[in-house]
Design goal:
- The protein is an alpha/beta fold.
- The chain is built from 22 helices and 17 strands.
- α1 crosses α2, α14 crosses α15 and α19 packs across α22.
- The chain is globular and about 70 Å long.
Length: 586
């Protein structure tokens, strides 16, 4: 078989363990897709939009810690990859994007569809290059892959249309040997951190994704320090289940127990997190931060001691130092801080559970009517999320769209067992849940994959529902159909603005799915909710569960301010006056 540029690239992907390549076929990619066609262990997944392809490749990378691969052809095909690639870059996961280009002889001539890919991808990629001679391979490909894996980021390799089927003059196989070192901070820095922790009275841990591989060590440290553990959203997976120290999330999607534990602490210990919301860090506390990236130390909150190293190795070093001497006369930290935080958290969870009870609205009979009475406004989104949690497998993979779908997942779905979680939690893109589920399901067709879709997010990339159908991927799409851009609505109202521009004129998504050959189930009555969820999960193949939820349901922040409360009240009054004004005009 001829050693063409396309053949070298595809054979190398096979060697790397890449099993799917996501994209849209066309012109410059034809030699590459033909090489995939004739390769037994690499599958081409034809998407309807390149953005979906990039999200799917990124999802596979995040779930496996291996290289994800997507392709976009000349000009707009490659441009469409950008949003999904930005999400991969912000998620710090290795993705290789193969981008098409006009023929070499046309470069720089403003040819039809010509785009300067090296310039286009400069901000998003840790490495980018254009192949201008077949003999640049396999070295140029090796460099791209090593950069993507080594820097946990995006590499873009551009292949002009007349290069893919040209032969190499040599026959050297690609080599990708790459090891990941374990790093640990200097002993003196660990000693200072241990001294600070030993003298502290109330310590709270903020634990992020970077600590997930060190679960047992982190739990041992929390026990040693009697410290409540606030989890970032990405740390739900790995730390939420079977954990007597965790108290959920802080931030806008968080709870008051977590916010309280942060503010009542005298010392914060940040483990593997770059939690970006500065307003949610308390001021005037001693702070220790552990991270593998030196640039992450102190960029969100002032840090007293920065420990650059792997969380597991660093925590083990801290435990060795802490166990050498008692912290208090009785040899242990005061556990009151932990116990109070856990009590507050469990009480908050009980209150939340009542909102998820279908009988909750019946208890409102005879009380003052409000927008929160769902009997006329739709099904509570809390009830939907809780029903999914009850019926989902303990090894399910969840994806969630940015916005209120993520809020309900974070509060009502527990990452117990070996459940996994994906979302656009750093970029905050819309329309990510369905294509991420597409990539996840391709990894294992027998594992349950559930996408928490907002109606706005789903409709943005609606065409790739056909990709689920074409490949008969048994993804379960749970649509929170509140006919709104719900998070934007809440943002407007908290600022005292009336809702504007957020209303969505939705179709019957279940009927749309049915027309596409996908099982569609629509739920409008709370009494039907649990049965509908069970039926959706028991049905073979892809299923879209369209649940009409209450558009006026709100998620109260972990520490609501007086300004937010007044803003919400003012907004509701403006909306009421506008509504009455509309009525008088008709």
């Amino acid at each position: 078989m001829a050693r063409t540029v396309a053949r070298v690239i595809v054979d190398a992907l096979s060697e790397l363990g890449v099993r799917q390549v996501f994209g849209v076929v066309g012109d410059a990619l034809n030699p590459l897709t033909d090489a995939i066609r004739t390769t037994d262990d690499v599958e081409w997944v034809g998407c309807r939009h390149e953005e979906a392809a990039a999200f799917a490749a990124s999802a596979q990378s995040q779930l496996t810690d291996r290289l994800g691969v997507c392709m976009g052809t000349v000009g707009p095909g490659s441009v469409h990859l950008l949003n999904g690639l930005y999400d991969a870059a912000k998620s710090r996961t290795p993705v290789l994007a193969i981008a098409g280009q006009v023929p070499l002889s046309e470069l720089g001539s403003d040819a039809f569809q010509e785009v300067d890919n090296d310039l286009l991808f400069r901000d998003v990629a840790v490495f980018r290059a254009t192949v201008t001679d077949p003999d640049q391979l396999p070295q140029l490909l090796e460099t791209a892959v090593r950069n993507a894996l080594g820097h946990k980021g995006v590499a873009v390799l551009t292949v002009p249309g007349d290069l893919g089927d040209r032969e190499l003059h040599h026959d050297r196989p690609a080599r990708f040997s790459l090891t990941t070192p374990t790093t640990r901070p200097e002993a003196s820095a660990v000693r200072r951190a241990a001294d600070l922790l030993s003298s502290a009275d109330r310590i709270t841990l903020l634990v992020g994704q970077g600590a997930r591989a060190a679960r047992e060590d982190v739990l041992a440290l929390a026990d040693r320090l009697a410290a409540p553990m606030v989890l970032t959203l990405k740390a739900k997976e790995g730390f939420e289940g079977d954990n007597a120290f965790q108290i959920g999330q802080t931030g806008l999607i968080g709870n008051p127990a977590a916010a309280g534990a942060m503010h009542s602490a005298d010392t914060l210990l940040l483990l593997g997190t770059d939690f970006p919301y500065r307003d949610w860090y308390p001021e005037g506390r001693k702070v220790i931060q552990v991270d593998t990236e030196p640039a992450h130390i102190g960029r969100r909150v002032p840090v007293d001691i920065g420990l650059v190293g792997d969380v597991g190795a660093t925590v083990r070093d801290l435990l060795d130092q802490l166990s050498a001497e008692p912290t208090h006369p009785n040899g242990a930290h005061n556990r009151g801080h932990l116990e109070q935080a856990r009590k507050h958290f469990l009480s908050w969870r009980e209150d939340q559970a009542r909102l998820a009870d279908p009988a909750h609205d019946k208890s409102l009979v005879g009380k003052v009517r409000s927008a929160l009475d769902n009997r006329e406004h739709g099904i509570r989104p809390e009830a939907l999320a809780a029903a999914v949690d009850r019926n989902a497998a303990d090894d399910a993979i969840f994806t969630s769209d940015t916005g209120m779908a993520t809020v309900w997942l974070s509060r009502f779905v527990e990452m117990r067992g070996t459940r996994r979680l994906l979302g656009s939690y750093n970029l905050g893109s819309m329309a990510n849940a369905m294509p991420q589920a597409l990539g996840a399901q391709h990894l294992d067709r027998d594992r349950q994959v559930i996408a928490f879709c907002g109606d706005g997010g789903l409709s943005m990339l609606l065409g790739d529902l056909m990709t689920l159908k074409t490949y008969q991927l048994p993804v379960k799409l749970v649509v929170f159909d509140n006919r709104r851009l719900g998070m934007v609505k809440l943002e407007q109202e908290q600022a005292g603005l009336p809702e504007f521009g957020t209303v969505l004129d939705n179709p019957d998504f279940a009927a749309v799915a049915t027309a596409m050959g996908i099982t569609g189930i629509r739920v409008t009555d709370p009494a039907d909710l649990d049965d509908a969820v069970r039926r959706a999960f028991a049905t073979e193949g892809p299923v879209l569960l369209d649940v009409l939820t209450n558009p006026d349901e709100i998620a109260v922040p972990a520490k609501p301010t007086v300004e937010q409360g007044w803003g919400f009240a003012v907004a509701k009054m403006k909306e009421l006056l506008r509504s009455h004004g509309d009525e008088t005009q008709h």
